[in-house]
Amino acid sequence: xxxxxxxxxxxxxxxxxxxxxVERTFAWLGRCRRLAKDWERSIASAEAWITIAxxxxxxxxxxxxxxR
Length: 68
Known about the structure:
Layout: H1 19-30, H2 43-66
C-alpha cells in the first residue's frame, strides 16, 4: 500500500492517482450491513468479516457473468 499525498505546490484541484479505486472499494464494502458500523470486538473478527464481504461480492460478480 502506498499513501499518496497532495503536492505542496498544487494551487488548484488535482486528481490523485488511483485514489478512486480505494474509495470505490470502501463504498462497495459499505453496502454490507455488518460493516456499516464497527461492532466487532477484535481486529481478527473485523478482518474476517471484510474477507467474507469480498468473497460475497466476487461470487455474485462471477455468477452474474456466468448467466449472461
